[in-house]
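Late entry, written up from scratch paper. The run itself happened at the end of the previous shift, but nothing got recorded in the book at the time, so transcribing now.
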Amino acid sequence: MTPNATSNSSTCDSQRLARVCRAPDPVGEFSGQSVFLAGSIEGGPNPWQVRITQQLAHCDVTIFDPRRDDWDSTWIQRKSDDRFQHQIEWELNYQERADLVAVYLHPGTEAPVSLLETGLATSHRKAIVCCPDGFWRKKTVKAFCELKEVPLVESLDELAGKVMEMLERLRDPGMFSHKNLTIVTHHIHDSGSCPLTYGFASRLSS
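Output as recorded:
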C-alpha cells in the first residue's frame, strides 16, 4: 500500500493521490484518511462507485469499494458459502478501520436492505447520506436524517463534496468530539440480482 503524502498541502490536490481498495483483495496496512462506499449497487457500465472514485481521485485518501464485478447470483447468503462469507469478512475487517462512510441510495433501486441498514447507520450518526430525487422512500430517509442530525445530500456531486469537506476537517482532530471514527458496514445480496451494501456509523461533529 502506497503511504500517504506527508507534505502540508491540502487533503485534495491536483495530482492523483487516492488509493482504491476493492473487494476481495487484501488491503494490509494503510495510513491516513479513508472512506467506505456504502449503499445501492446497481448495474450498468458506469456505477456510482466508479464516478465518485473519479471525483475523489485527487484526494489523499484510501477508498474502500465493496463492489465486485465477479459477483455471482448463485452465491448463497449463508456462512457455508465461502465466497459470500469472505465478502462479509472483507467488509467487516476494512470498514471498521475507515474514517467515513458515504451512503448512496440509487433512485433506480428499491434497496430494502440498504434502506434498513442506512437507518442503523444514521442511528450511530456518522454517515453521510445521498438520497437523490426519485428514490422511492426519500421522504422517510430525509425525515430520519434530520431527526438524527445526519448530513443528507441529493446528488453524487454533493456527496463527493461533502466527503472532501470531512476529509479536510479530519486533518484537525480538534474539530471533532471523537478522535477515533469507527465505521462498520455490511454487504449482502438482496432478493433479485443486485448485491447491496449498507453501513453503520456514528456522527461527525464540528
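The beta strands are 19-22, 33-39, 61-65, 100-104, 127-130, 152-153, 184-189, 195-200.
(Scratch paper discarded after transcription.)
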